[in-house]
Amino acid sequence: MKKSGYNPVVPAADQAARLLFCLAAHPGSSLTLTRICSEMDIHKSKGFALLHTLMQYDLVNKNRETKTYSLGTGLLTLARHVNENSDLNDIAKPLLKRLSNETSQTVLLGTIWDDRLYIALKVENNEPIGISVRQFQTLHITHGAHGKAIAAFSPPSERERLLNLDDVEYYGKDTTHDPDELIFELEQCERSGYALDNGRVTPGIKALSAPLFDHDNTLCGAIVLLGTFADQSIPEFGPRVFETARDISRNLGARLENTGFANVVPHPHTGEHP
After folding, report:
1. Is the pLDDT assigned to residue 21 strictly greater than 70?
2. Domains, in order of start, for the chain
3. What is the pTM of this model?
4. Which of 269, 161, 149 is nearest to 221 (CA)?
5. What angle do CA 24, 170, 231 make, to 5 degrees?
6. What's the CA angle centered on 165, arms 218 and 116, to 5 degrees?
7. pLDDT for the residue numbered 217
8. Contact 69/62 with Cβ under 8 angstroms?
9. Strand, helix or coil for residue 151
10. Computed over its alpha carbons, how large is the radius of gyration of the chain?
11. Exposed, middle or buried by CB within 10 Å (0-12, 13-18, 19+), for 164?
12. pLDDT, tens only, 29-66
C-alpha cells in the first residue's frame, strides 16, 4: 500500500516558530528583516508578515529607530505559565529554598537549550547586594561556574566541543584564559561535584555550580549559588550545592550510578557518596 504523503504541519505556524528560534539564537541582539529572512531562507514579504503578526501578541518587539527585531515580553508570560505548571518547579523549588536558607545566598536553576542556559528558577536571599541574573533570562552555556560544571560532566566529545567554541565565557566575556588552568579546574570539578568562579566573571560575586541529570541520565542543566560569601565558606557551600543538584537529579529520575556523579569523591563534612 502506498504511504500517505500527508504531513500534519501548518507552514505558517512552522515558519513563525522558526522565526522565534532564529531571534533566540542571537541573545542580546536585534536583527534586521534582511538578516532574519536570510537566515530562514524566506522572502522578505513573508518575513515581514510573520514579524508583524507575532508583534500583535507581544512575541516580537520592533525597535522603531533601528528597524530591528527581538523577542518580545509576551514570551515571558508564556514561560511563567510553563514554569508554574512544570514538574521541575515542584521537584526543585523546595530543594533550592533549602540550599538558599542554609547558605543565605541566591540560588538559580538553569536548563540547557542549544548553547544557552535558561534560568527557569531563582530563589532570592536577604543579602543587601542584588544579583543581576534574572529568572527567565539566558546565559551562555560556558559562562562562569555553570560553564565549568557542564563541561566537566559532559561526555568527552561534547566537552571537546564546548572547550573549542568560538566565544567562551568560562572566565567572563571577552577574556582569555590558560587552557591548562581550565582543564585543571574541570578535573577538580569532576572529583568534587561542583565548580567555582571566585569573582573572576563579576568582581565581588562568587559562584558555585553543579550539573543536573534527567530521567535518561542526560546532562540537562545546572544549579548555581551566587553571593558575596567568604572564601572560608567554599568548602562548606560547595558540597551543599553538589548535594542539592544530586537530590534534584535523583528526583528527576536519574540513576546516579550511570552519571558522572558516580565518580565524585565523598565530601568530608558529610562523608556521603552520590
Report:
1. yes
2. 11-72 (1.10.10.10), 79-263 (3.30.450.40)
3. 0.71
4. 149
5. 125
6. 50
7. 93
8. yes
9. helix
10. 21
11. exposed
12. 789 999 999 999 999 999 999 999 999 988 999 998 89
